[in-house]
Amino acid sequence: MNQKTLLSISFCIIFIALIWTITNFYTDFLTSKFSGVKELQKKTQITQSFADQKSPSELAKRMNEFTPDSLDKTAITTEFTQFERESNIEIASISVDEQGSLIKDTNNLDTNNTSINTLRPVNISLKITGGKREIYTFLQKLTQSKRYIGVNTVSLSFDKGLDNIEGTINAITYYK
């Protein structure tokens, strides 16, 4: 073989070795970054799956038909405890706090154009633990209950995996 051919082959071998080294380095680097991105995407999908809300007309019907006349914290706590049992999660704490402002129900106006019904909001804060499916079932029960319960925020911690999620749920319900 002549020297020119040998030099070309040597250059190709060195070039291939360099490409292989760089590829291996960046493959490990990119794989670790992609696995982090995939984990974040999975967590985001799970969190977004909890945001299943109803149509506005159905919500208005539930609010008008099933809104209690007075605030009964025991009834709210009992209802949430029932959902807890049916969903197989654990509620560490339930906080039920009345807000001061009134919300006028403009769907029911009398002849003087004043609201017949005024709704008083009640904030509900829950600290929960359970698996992904169980928490999803719990949130479905909340949003599908006869009493209107609006889920405002769901904050979940996936530190211990999908079968041991901790978090808080802030919701709102109303009474007349």
Task: Give keywords.
176 residues, alpha+beta, 4 helices, 49% helix, rod-shaped
Give your account of this protein's structure.
By secondary structure, the chain is α+β, with helices and mostly antiparallel strands. The chain has helices at residues 3-49, 56-66, 73-87, 132-144, and strands at 90-98, 103-104, 118-130, 150-157, 165-175. Strands 1, 2, 3, 4 and 5 form a 5-stranded antiparallel β-sheet that branches. Helix 3 (73-87) packs across helix 4 (132-144). The longest helix is centred in the N-terminal third of the chain and has 47 residues, at 3-49.
Structural class: alpha+beta
Shape: rod-shaped
Q: Share of helix among residues?
A: 40-55%
> Unreliable runs, pLDDT <50, ≥5 residues?
105-116
Radius of gyration: 28 Å
**What's the number of extended β-strand segments?**
5
Estimated share of beta-strand residues: 15-25%
Largest sheet: 5 strands, antiparallel
Number of helices: 4
The overall average pLDDT, rounded, is 77
Helix and strand topology:
Layout: H1 3-49, H2 56-66, H3 73-87, E1 90-98, E2 103-104, E3 118-130, H4 132-144, E4 150-157, E5 165-175
Antiparallel strand pairs: 1-3, 2-3, 3-5, 4-5
Helix pairs in contact: 3-4
In short:
This protein is of the alpha+beta class.
